[in-house]
DNA sequence: GCGGGTGTTCACGC
DNA sequence: CGCGTGAACACCCG
């Protein structure tokens, strides 16, 4: 799933359906996903669901928390007798548990929370709440859209006017702008879909070294990131792979995506360009060579 | 069979 | 240590 809009969609679902439940049991069907002592969370009540970048944190009332990263194909699915009587459609998950179900949390009031993950890249860590922010993934997370990433902060990162580790260093990044905005330690939450679409929206070529962007382009890119993510919130996220929300429903942003995955298709601006696919930083990169300069 | 996939994470070279 | 690159993780789909 997994970029900021998809993880936020899951967080909202956790807040609506899962917060308030007690965890009665934890069943580990496949090892390697869950880390930590599961007995620490038995009998505890879920008090909050938080998100940092593409990571989730479920707080419990006993000073423990669950830190979760669903990587590419993780799913958190909530089931209870009530929601099953009101059929959710479309439910992409179907029968559950299935062959990709690795962890089952039994909750009170006959509810369950399932963790499915086709590729098993994701992780769930049980640890004292005070240790959660010490995990490198959270500790090293950069500022993120809709939180602390203001346009000024974004501009400073892109043009490298300040960084946490070397405040006096100037000169800018030679790295292409696309891998830079996807670097979670620089900016939190942006992944491959929204990086591609935001660069298209801002008419910036993904190969451009970050330091060559002028003030106007940086401003356009910032606004484009916000715009494509807001569109995705409205559509419930993008379900290119296996992303579903907490009720098993798909999102619909992929129907609106501008260039992501559209190799060989005409540019949405109808400028005569064909969307090209190249590799940048090891990731598929889609852009229109005509309008993205 | 092959290429490609919404993401880290680690190993290695400079 | 910072920076950049490439592979690894595991499995499905066209």
Task: Give the topology, please.
Elements: H1 4-18, E1 23-28, E2 34-35, E3 46-52, E4 55-60, E5 64-69, E6 74-79, H2 81-85, E7 101-107, E8 112-117, E9 123-128, H3 129-132, H4 136-139, H5 151-158, H6 177-182, H7 192-201, H8 215-235, E10 276-280, E11 283-287
Helix pairs in contact: 1-8, 5-8, 7-8
The chain binds a DNA duplex (14 and 14 nucleotides) through helix 7.
Description:
This protein has 293 residues and is α+β, with helices and mostly antiparallel strands. The chain is 25% helix and 21% strand. It has eight helices and eleven strands. The protein has helices spanning 4-18, 81-85, 129-132, 136-139, 151-158, 177-182, 192-201, 215-235; strands at residues 23-28, 34-35, 46-52, 55-60, 64-69, 74-79, 101-107, 112-117, 123-128, 276-280, 283-287. The strands form three sheets. Strands 2-9-5-4-3 form a five-stranded mixed sheet. A hairpin with a 3-residue loop joins strand 4 (55-60) and strand 5. 42% of the residues are buried. The model has no long low-confidence stretch (mean pLDDT 92). The chain binds a DNA duplex (14 and 14 nucleotides) through residues 1-3, 5-6, 54, 69-73, 100, 117-122, 136-137, 165-166, 173-175, 179, 182, 184, 191-194, 237-243, 254, 260-261, 281-284.
